[in-house]
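Dear support,

I submitted the protein below through the web form. The confirmation email said the job was done, but the results page showed an empty box. After a refresh the structure appeared. I'm attaching both so you can tell me whether what I see now is the final result or a partial one.
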Amino acid sequence: MPSLMSTLAIAGLLREAAPAIEAVLGAPLQVDLAPTRALEARIRAGERADAAVLTAEAIAALAAEGVLDGATARPLAHSRVGIAVRAGVPHPDIASVDALRRLLLDVPSLCYSRAGASGIFFADLVERLGIAAAVNAKAIVIPQGFTAEKLVSGEAAIAFQQVSELMEVPGIEVVGPLPDGAQTIAVFSGAAFAGAPDGARVLAAVAACCTPAALLAKGLDPPG
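What the results page shows now:
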């Protein structure tokens, strides 16, 4: 069975594109979804698939190690980090870095993911803003998964993650992407595993579904 290891950032796109991808492949696609850092660790521990979708940095590193075929690497999507609240709750002001800083200090609770690209960025952001101790004292840090689920359960007042990942949780509303000066744009790329017989086919099928319209509908931007 064709297989793919993929970051959660394109989970929604893969779910909707599954029939088209499987029609091209002529078989069901086995998709293993997890944060990039977790997938990197598992790949380095010996796990394999036909292709992988990870951050561009992870793809480059694993290609340099000979695990992925660097000649097949291609950018698939750009992703912005955003904030969400439970549906029906007033949206906080995040129009500026100062407004975001005030929100992070004033909000009673928040959630981010330790293993995801957004969580790594968030930890650095609060350090840069000089509020790491105050924020981390009230933060719920999940090992992986969708942070917005903590909004639905009432455990957190705001959730921080890639916009595309926030959008995958029903019962929440995306406030928007972080403002300029507090934003990062992650590049997610794909590559075939070195020596994988179906690697090129799987990667091509996934890439064909990453059209500008499909990406934008899932909170992502086309690469380029």
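Response: this is the final, complete result; the empty box was a page-load delay. The chain has two domains: 3-78+186-221, 79-177.
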